[in-house]
Amino acid sequence: MDSAKAAVKEFMSKSGHHDTTVHEKVAPAVTHESHQLQQHEQIQTAIDKEVHQDHYHTSIQPIKDREVLPEQHHHNLAAVEHRSFEHGNDAQVKERLAAEAAQFRDERT
Q1: SS3 7
Q2: What CA–CA distance (Å, rounded) separates 62 from 21?
Q3: CA distances (Å), 84 to each of 51, 77, 81, 94, 101, in order?
Q4: Which residues have a Cβ under 8 Å from the Cβ of 25 and sit 6 or more positions away?
Q5: What angle do CA 44, 48, 49 make, to 5 degrees?
Q6: What is the pTM assigned to this prediction?
Q7: pLDDT 10s digit of each residue in the chain, 109 long?
Q8: Residue of 107, 106, 86, 88 lying closest to 97 (CA atoms)
Q9: What is the number of alpha carbons within 13 Å of residue 52 lying toward its C-beta?
Q10: Rounded distance between C-alpha atoms, residue 104 and residue 107, angstroms
């Protein structure tokens, strides 16, 4: 109850007095510039020139008449030569091949 009395007393103590709240807003600085217009005159002079270009084509004419002969094909082939080489005994070669083939067989151990 004491707190309520204190709140009422504080509120009533301001009676008759002005309570002023001031709200202030600060704007950014203002710059004043003055623009002066200036006129610029650009003059472009058109020059009309007539450029004449002569077109020369120099061609060299042949003095002699060139004769083109037909193609000639030559085939230089030697005769076929048959050669036969005997490197050893045919039976011995067959035995050796059979022995080498016998090494490659399926085994189960």
Answers
A1: helix
A2: 113
A3: 86, 21, 10, 19, 27
A4: none
A5: 130
A6: 0.21
A7: 788 889 888 877 777 677 777 778 887 887 888 888 888 899 988 888 888 888 888 888 878 878 899 999 988 888 888 888 777 788 888 898 899 888 887 777 7
A8: 88
A9: 1
A10: 9
